[in-house]
């Protein structure tokens, strides 16, 4: 299946009844203490299940044949919540595997949607191995978090939607396994400058571009439950090499600063992975030119940062 504009448009039509059109917040770099520049935040944390992953989840369940055994997914948390939500809405059985680093907020979301949940292992790779064993034993349909054509097509619908909402020169996108940036880059195909943003502790796409192929990279840091697979996907890699202008790295401290800045400036509560792209601006890892129209995907909001019982 080709990951390109026509296929993304068809996917958008299929999943449209099931996903939200998430809003954009038009602001200025000065709101974040930066030099003035037009700034657009794509608030994908307001998507069903709290992240962009819901787009890819519905694409998988609606474009593929789901067996009686249902679906299975491995996840740091957000993908599992998205698959569990989509399965609940479509009346499909779901079994989700997550590692022990998955945040309590994400585990609670998965359980709230009625999926069977297995927590075990230290990293996403451990959950993936367990899910693959379950697939072999059960015959359930595996829904990969990033290395599946339907996943990339679903995530690409975010860019289709964003292009209808605003005009951009540059878009900053956080990178984990690469499903989101792969889908976005496939949609824009060079018409908008796409910049990847990775944690220093999990430089998966940086390592892949340096090696010329997906390779294992460190998988740690504050955003490890969403941006730290062992390596990027094979399907997204040629798209990234062709259409991602470059990748920049941000520290854990910068990601925390970005979370704080989004809250203080806009009252937006983002999880670490959801705030990473904003961190590239705060740290000067990406510096816009005068008048450059910059977009940032705030990709997820599943966090325990807000406690209304206090």
Description:
The structure is a single chain. By secondary structure, the chain is α/β, with parallel strands linked by helices. The protein has 2 domains: 199 residues, Rossmann fold (3-Layer(aba) Sandwich); 90 residues, Rossmann fold, CATH 3.40.50. It is 42% helix and 16% strand. The strands form 2 sheets. The protein has a 6-stranded mixed β-sheet, with helices on both faces. A 4-stranded parallel β-sheet has the order 5-4-3-6, sandwiched between helices. Helix 2 packs across helix 6. The longest helix is centred in the middle third of the chain and has 17 residues.
Write the layout of secondary structure elements.
Layout: H1 5-15, E1 24-28, E2 38-43, H2 53-63, E3 71-74, H3 78-90, E4 94-98, H4 104-112, E5 116-119, H5 124-138, E6 141-142, H6 149-165, E7 170-174, H7 179-188, E8 193-199, H8 204-211, H9 224-227, H10 237-243, E9 244-250, H11 252-266, H12 272-282, E10 294-298
